Amino acid sequence: MTEDSQRPALSAQRLSGVRILVTRPAAQADTLCRMIESEGGVAVRLPLLAIEPVMQPATARQRLAGGHDGWIFTSANAVRHALPLLPPAWPRQVAAIGPATATALAAAGREIAATPVAAASSEALLELPELQQVEGRRLLIVTGEGGRHLLEETLAARGAAIERAEVYRRVSLPYPPDDVAAALRKSDVVTVTSGTVLEHLVRLTPEGSRASLLKKPLVAPSERVVEQARALGFARPHAIAEAMSDAAVCAACARAAAR
After folding, report:
1. Residues near 211 by beta carbon (within 8 Å), at least 6 away in sequence
2. Structural contact between residues 86 and 157, judged by C-beta atoms closer than 8 angstroms
3. All domains of the chain, ordered by start, with CATH?
4. Cα distances (Å, whole numbers) of residue 69 to 41, 43, 249
5. Nearest CA to 99 among 238, 218, 224, 249?
6. CA atoms within 13 A on the CB side of 68
7. Strand partners, 167
8. What is the pLDDT of residues 63-91, one digit of tens each?
9. 159: which of 16, 87, 133, 219 is 20 to 30 A away, CA to CA?
10. pTM for the full predicted model
């Protein structure tokens, strides 16, 4: 199924004239930008992170070959960067943090034992019945460097033996202040994919453009990032993308622009 075929049947040109700052990594932004433009919007590209393999993959490779009872993938990036490191034999149970991650696993020919249907978050994954009774199980979380530790902390508290295989890293990209200011002037709505991206955008924004940034409506991946935005001084009502799919982000941009 293509990304377009998953698009909800909403009014045509719902983003007409709306200028949207897209901060996704460059290699992952093309489909979203085309969808924004197909719905009448303007995509303003400012990729704030690059996604790269870990510099020393031997540790991740060793952990992936550790004979765990289950693997949990925290993002589509985790799937893409784990594939070259994976052993031939997979555990019987494989979980994905959300629909986009599940799609990446399906593209690799793997069935998913557990994934949240709507929300893509650690909290939603931890609510699934399959992850309630995990005492004595050896579980491997396949993820990127850094990030949240809610999954391992909660599953360890439920009695599982948890390991972590970090298969990619996020690299913050620098920009001259004038480039960031120019991108913000061209944008009506700001999209971010994580709290890390949000903080980096605020850091890059020159002082003279900071007030303008904080007044713009924001599309965020979770209520946690929205709270982070409020703490940073963002004042407008914000929209949460129900998933980080292109269609969900476009729908959230339409809601944010309408507000």
Report:
1. none
2. no
3. 4-48+174-258 (3.40.50.10090), 52-171 (3.40.50.10090)
4. 46, 43, 34
5. 249
6. 27
7. none
8. 999 999 999 999 999 999 999 999 988 99
9. 87
10. 0.82
